[in-house]
Amino acid sequence: MRPAPPPQTYRVKSFGCQMNVYDGERMAELLASQGIRPASEGEEADLVVLNTCHIREKAAEKVYSDIGRITKEWRRDDGSAPLIAVAGCVAQAEGEEIMARAPAVSMVVGPQAYHRLPQMIEEATHGRRSVDTDMPAETKFDTLPARRSVGPSAFLTVQEGCDKFCTYCVVPYTRGAEISRPFADLVAEAQRLVEAGAREITLLGQNVNAWRDEAERGLEKLVEALAAIPQLARIRYTTSHPNDMTDGLIEAHRDVAKLMPFLHLPVQSGNDRVLKAMNRSHTVESYLRVLDQVRAVRPDIALSGDFIVGFPGETDAEFEDTLKLVERVGYAQCFSFKYSPRPGTPAATMEGQVPMAVMDERLQRLQAALQRSSLAFNQASVGRRCAVLVERRGRHEGQWLGKSPWLQSVHFTADVAIGDLVEVELIEAGPNSLAGRLI
Predict the structure, then answer these.
(1) Residue 437 in 3-state DSSP?
(2) Which architecture does CATH list for 385-438?
(3) Domain 140-380 bears CATH identifier 3.80.30.20
(4) Confidence class of residue 5 from pLDDT cuts 50, 70 and 90?
(5) How many whole angstroms separate alpha carbon 165 and alpha carbon 169?
(6) 3-state helix, strand, coil in the chain (%, to 5)
(7) Model pTM score
(8) Is 92 helix (H, G, I), strand (E, B) or coil?
(9) Domain positions in the chain
């Protein structure tokens, strides 16, 4: 690799989960603090950061495809190409292989080390390629710049890593063990987010409800502290594990008015044998018991979840159990995926790998059931009056888009501004959004 001039512009492309979106935002802020500006629309950036996700199959191949496209399409008249950084979970899992297979990549940085990007960029300008996939004990958050400007809804990572070791999942290997950020740091960062324009904060973690502070207080105590910030209107959290839904957190849905009536609680399957094979450590009965507890304290709660179809050994009857669970719960929205074998995970070598055609058929049936459930929830919302947080302009003149307390997308026509909380009557429902009328 030959020396390159210091980059003047950057572009960050993030894939996957909300945690990756958050990490992408923080990397962008870090680069901006170094005097590097975001590339304009259509402008070729001097530095491209591919912030990758390793959850789905062929994630790595998509990275190589992007690298090839960038080096081919963005090559300048003098033959040079932009600096390319591969970040995120694919970087963590396949760092050295990426460097060997893709000479165009200047640096590879894991999700616990991206605060070191400035030093790695400096090395790249001197013609040195570098890999950093360490998981240091010290927190990266202490070295990241303060957040200057955010939208009306902002993410705040409170917990990273996972100790659950589900047999299909690479997160414990790419994000490391569960680590909770300190209470005081989080309250201070939330305050800064509000001062930068946030009206709503979503607390993030691989298992966000596993967060504990130095005194072993649970997530509900953090929620209560953030609710005391006057200008903060809404609090959400994701993603949760059924085994970490404590009585205190459940009661917070009743007691903390700013905690929105929405719970994303992945179950993954509606069959106990499959759940055990997944090492999910909960049963269908224990999962439903948690939902009943939440509904008892917050009857209007909107429920969301994750499902995997075609896990190794899943039979037709076991898949039917998943459809029965969907019908019983009545989800407001859900994510669903075909099982994808990840190298290094126990499930990848299990017997009974389900044929792709079978997984395709099951996924279509599951998604149809989930869409019916989502539509029914939205239709039941028609006639409600609720506050909507305005997030952006719609496609039509005078149209605005925002979120209801139940995380529904609502579009309406009015004279408002981004960041406003406005009272809206929900007047028409579709499976993915609702129409509203300003009151």
Answers:
(1) strand
(2) Beta Barrel (2.40)
(3) yes
(4) confident
(5) 7
(6) 40, 25, 40
(7) 0.86
(8) helix
(9) 9-132, 140-380, 385-438
